[in-house]
Design brief:
Layout: H1 3-15, H2 20-29, H3 37-46, H4 52-65, H5 70-79, H6 84-93, H7 98-110, H8 118-130, H9 135-141
Helix pairs in contact: 1-3, 7-9
Length: about 140
């Protein structure tokens, strides 16, 4: 195992949680050989330096606190290489009221201003859709 790659990966993980896919991409950007990266990733997982569960939980908490919905969070976790079983486990273990989350995001952006016309309503719907809320959650607010 290449110690330079290991130290670089541990340095990345010391700043924040990463997925194996993210670590691999960042190590490739640092011009490390693709064949030498998998043993380092396996070592990091065995030593519990790298954990997809912790990574998924971290992303989840951050996005919920910033006012994003489940669809956005799920999509982001998929893009970052988290397995679908971990994503479903995360979804089932969380006790989040997504209707309340959608309402909080809506109120933060639009306040108590009344909807003026269809164009304004469409703008508000697009905002909530871009934040990852379902149609049901969106129309319950409007």
């Amino acid at each position: 195992m290449n110690k330079r790659i290991l130290h670089s990966a541990i340095g990345l993980l010391s700043r924040r949680e990463h997925s194996a896919k993210e670590i691999t991409q960042k190590l490739l950007l640092r011009k490390f050989d693709l064949d030498e990266i998998p043993p380092v990733i396996e070592f990091l997982i065995e030593q519990n330096y790298l954990s997809h569960d912790r990574f998924a939980e971290s992303i989840f908490r951050t996005r919920v606190n910033r006012g994003y919905g489940w669809l956005f969070i799920e999509n982001e976790l998929n893009k970052k290489g988290v397995s679908s079983s971990i994503i479903m486990q995360l979804k089932n273990n969380q006790q989040i009221d997504w209707y309340l989350q959608a309402e909080l995001a809506y109120n933060k952006r639009f306040g108590t201003a009344a909807i003026i016309d269809q164009k304004d309503k469409a703008k508000r719907v697009r905002f909530l859709q871009s934040r990852g809320f379902t149609t049901d959650e969106i129309f319950s607010i409007l």
